[in-house]
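Q: Two folds, back to back.
A: First:
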Amino acid sequence: MLPALLLTLAVEVPLYTAALVALGLATPWRAAALGALVNLLTHPALWWFLAPRPSATRFWAAEAMVVVVEALALSVVVRRDALLLVVTSVGANACSVLMGLLVL
């Protein structure tokens, strides 16, 4: 689980940082902290959910929930349109899923 978390942080934190700064929603340091925070919030829950019976269906359902939770957490902090943050979360999570598949 730790290698997956580290890979997720390495991929998603820079993406969240770039997106939140480009959208004018946070300073670089705050954006990086938010990117790390939402991943530290969702990553353990994702692995806990997948652990007993991993399957493609459970994986995609869990990833969908991660996107929603991360977007909602960000919207509470930056107080902006949740839909914009859903798109941001989809992009960050899609990149980390792809990177995870590439390094397996």
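A: Second:
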Amino acid sequence: MISEWRRLTFTMDELATAILQYLLQTNKITEKESLGKILIVGDDSLQVNATVKGGDKPEGRIIELKSETLGALLLTHCIRSKIPVAKRAKKSIMKHEDKLALILSID
């Protein structure tokens, strides 16, 4: 049986775009706020800590995005960017060097 494995690695700019779209769509960020530093943390259970600036706190606030949310927003970004993704593929995320990658596998 043939199996396929793809790794889509996102630059920090692409990750920032995907996160910003998600934050705006879910109303977790206001028009007066902007996305600041993005930090990928963890190895087994990945998480992204995104700093949002321009609100009530001058130092900004941190929004934690868990792996399930990250996978969904990366997949949504692929769909919006017309990057082909097989519907039946098993999807997961991993840290690749200092970037985030969406892993797609079909058995």
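Q: And?
A: The chain has a mean pLDDT of 91.
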